[in-house]
């Protein structure tokens, strides 16, 4: 199976360095403090943030910083076959931890001591790159909730198939057997918050793929910034004057 | 990294597709994104608007062709013909084809548009915004897909502005006149202007290919077979509908079980109920098949046995099949002991096939080997034991048929009926393929009279359930049966070797070399290549009459007493550029094939015999390996240099001539060399140095465990009509070994160099250690004679063989060595980083860490690749780099081949190597048997195995392993022939049953039945005499017949006398020692030299030159005091001036004034020798420009 046609086009018609269509919406769940949906191609994720609020179990309270909790789940209708996933699912636990750590590094937790910030992320439609999409959605939701952050966290995934680095894999390409590298970074500070890969590749290939994923994350950051600006302008208009 | 993330796509759609999947979920809905764009190039050289690099579609084509899915599948063979060029393959069509067939089909399709010689392109119409349409499902019917193809054709027509004809093909069923008219009217093209045509295949072939008979013939034959199978299916349907009971028996009975569909197979494989693997069949037991199932590319240890036509269920050798295992009580035992417990390695199949001569048919031996049921008895044991049963399975489906051309001829009975009753209008005939593994094939043709007595090529179409044989169609005629030419061509077709001439397009890439415009070394080559024309005495040594000289050798004496030994290889990579048409054609061929009387060259003769070949007396471009060695310390290699050079070979010698020179003999007339006696003496000393050097390297390898193997090559003398009238084994001289050793060393050094530079991508050649069970026969023989054969390592094996040499008959020892050679596994090309085998890239037979093929680029494609890699490693690539890319070795290597392709090319080269080896061997055997048909020969043979009713013997002269029977089917003993030529053909049977054979462990005796007295006894490893002759066979090649001769037979006696005169030299153990006075001007302190060489590299330019000056003056003084030397040379040089603009311009000018005093008249050479040694010393670090 040729993942890249002899002409350089991928299975869905993109070139190796092109991102999928990005769409985002902020403020979808009115009850929550902050919420957002983020779509990368067919992958759709909704993130909802509650906080900062009172810590629910006194024992976990931290006197000098906020407590960040994160819960990741996949809707049972998100993949092709309807499958019920329990919360104790290993993958869900791992991803929850990963997202929590990533966002915690971005939030200025010492400004909100003795409080709790809950991030809930749910995948509505999975078509490759769910990890990256979750982080992006969480960023928007946190921004919507007004929680102070060092910088936005933008994330993107990249891989290597047919001897070419490819950006933003979809499900078919993901199952193609090549490496899958996800990177989350702070674009303005140019620091990496998350780097995760699950295969074995030689070092020079790794360098190429990582650089590509970083560039992709920067492009996503640009989009997130635009979305936030738009949202802010709308809010300003709604307030009048 | 400055990669730009652009957004080149213009729009996005979400497509819903339906796919039939596992049996539990018949239909699965797939949601996929489709990104639409407008930057897809059209691929045509005529286009002026698209931005594209080297568009494949030619500018001068008469038309461009667009196919739809049906025509692509049905007439695939036509589109695979090399004449069909300028085809546009649409992605929607390809997708439809893959859904109809299966995913494995993709590889075949891919080669149609990626091979540049086909000048066809892949156009992604599904993602092109102008040709995309909403309903692009696969389940679209014919009209829908037809409309799509026409829409794309219309777009192409508009895009190219009508500058070339566009033809879109439609399938036969569903072509609608109105559709065509609508399309044309929509594009407002009148009917007269026919630049856009929508045709059926029939019309297309008639209009555009009526002049080319191969195309039109193939088309009609395909049409016929299609029509026939359609009719048969219709009849079957009618019969089936009419009477269901017909299915159970009678004519319409289904002999075989239905195959499962590909989807259900995939489902069951996923569940673990079925195994998938390639179906293999042994040539000697065509009814016994084996499958080695592979799990995700790794060969497993399991071998599934599939015997008999019923269980095989219409699988043919090479097909990818799915097998269901049977319960253990239904397991069966194979007849051949060697098939049991074999390691699952698909390569071993071809090994076995290579080594066992395909013409010895043990089945066709005296049929006493069969019991009353007609089943063949195993020659190893008399009863089939239950414990020997192996896992057995049944084929339930075929995933992919193996498609290739088969050579066949009409079955005898059909031919007879044809010749007898010419009026019969039969259209179905049975033909017998030459390959014994394939069953008979039913051919449907109207021109059967043309096929009588001929060999022809067929292709198999399919095998219906209710038919006992598969059906196929005729492709082309080869020639009359039994004619040597035809048989040779048949062998070539069977092994996939094409003898089509080089295409005109690739010939245009060749440089010109005519008498008006001779080819000379271009100026820019002289600027960067090291010029060895005048400083080195280069000679080449090859078999007599060879025109393609790959390699040349040279020896140069340095003033400091060291030697420079050089191996120069023809620089083919300069003429054959990466991805040029010549390159692609050579890659497809893989290597030059040498068959008796016919040579199929990999490169056109202007290159292979002229411009690349290092002929004597002309300047040629080369890639050289130059070693600096110290003759004092056993030729220790101090330094090695690789690079591009210009050489001038002075003497083009052949082996016997070189041997005579090095032995110091007087040369017979016609063997003299140019240059007179001085030159001869110089050449003799050069050859002696080479001989000693190579001897030392050989001893080093032997100490590391190199195994000396022998390969017997046959040479045939042919008469005017190409028939063989004589056969001889090739005699090897010590000179052969000397040259071979130098080539091995060059290969090894190059292998090491490219491995160090590209540890993950170097193309090397490995030789795995032999499998232990291949030695079982030999171990038995050894035990019988009291030898021990230690097979634990290559060194142990070599030592065991050496011990044997000293204590036995040379014939037996030779035979033994030949058998050990047969037991070896095959060497193969591999990529350094991808070796998962524990033995890695080690070469067992040569005992070398790294080995590759470097020294014969004219006749092997792998060598051309290694040349490119070597030059990349030395950073001397001739291909232009992309802008801003650093010239690192890896960047240059990426130009050589991207890693994905390298893997495929290596597999392809291995397969080509095996096929050509097989073809060469089969051709040799064919000629041998043709020869034996006319002249029976008595030869020496060695008993290697005792069978129940005879023995297996090995004939070393022809490298044959044949059975000799001592008992015929009635049980009477066959006596060894003592008589004369009257009873040549008949066997001497003991009718009166006076004799009886007694088989004991390790020996076979013929005793008198009454008295028990032993007449003759045959033990393992005995040397005996047999008579070989051949009988013709119609459908297959001639069959060998072997007869035992008693020592009293006159033929045996004559042969003994003959061979007593020849010294049987299986290998060489001569030692060459170098006489002292060969090397002139040797300085007393030898150790200092070495230190200097190593420290040289750290010194600056000025120091080097100063040193040289000091040295030279010292030398000249020393010589004045010394006595006379053998060659009396005196050279003095003084350094005149050294200007060092080095730091500014990186150039230093060294002016040397050479004062030569020579007594032998070689002035110029000495002057050059002096400058050269300076240049050599400097050249290792700096660039040298020479001014005379």
From TrEMBL, chain A:
InterPro entries: ExoRNase_PH_dom1, ExoRNase_PH_dom2, ExoRNase_PH_dom2_sf, PNPase/RNase_PH_dom_sf, Ribosomal_Su5_D2-typ_SF, RNase_PH. It is found in: Cytoplasm; Nucleus, Nucleolus. Signal peptide: none annotated. Its main location: cytoplasm. Keywords: Cytoplasm, Exosome. It holds the Pfam family RNase_PH. Residues 18-148, 151-215 form the Exoribonuclease phosphorolytic domain. Belongs to the RNase PH family. This is Exosome complex component RRP41. It comes from Riccia fluitans. The lineage of its organism: Eukaryota, Viridiplantae, Streptophyta, Embryophyta, Marchantiophyta.
UniProtKB/TrEMBL annotation, chain B:
GO terms for cellular component: nuclear exosome (RNase complex). One of its GO terms (biological process) is rRNA processing. It comes from Riccia fluitans. GO terms for molecular function: 3'-5'-RNA exonuclease activity; RNA binding. Belongs to the RNR ribonuclease family. Residues 501-520 are annotated as: Disordered. Its cofactor is Mg(2+). Keywords: Exonuclease, Exosome, Hydrolase, Magnesium, Nuclease, Nucleus, RNA-binding, rRNA processing. InterPro entries: Dis3_CSD2 (IPR041505), NA-bd_OB-fold (IPR012340), RNase_II/R (IPR001900), RNase_II/R_CS (IPR022966), RNR_Ribonuclease (IPR050180). Residues 501-519 have a biased composition (Polar residues). Pfam families: OB_Dis3, RNB. PROSITE patterns: RIBONUCLEASE_II. The keyword Cytoplasm does not apply. It is found in: Nucleus. This is DIS3-like exonuclease 1. Residues 529-876 form the RNB domain. The keyword tRNA processing does not apply.
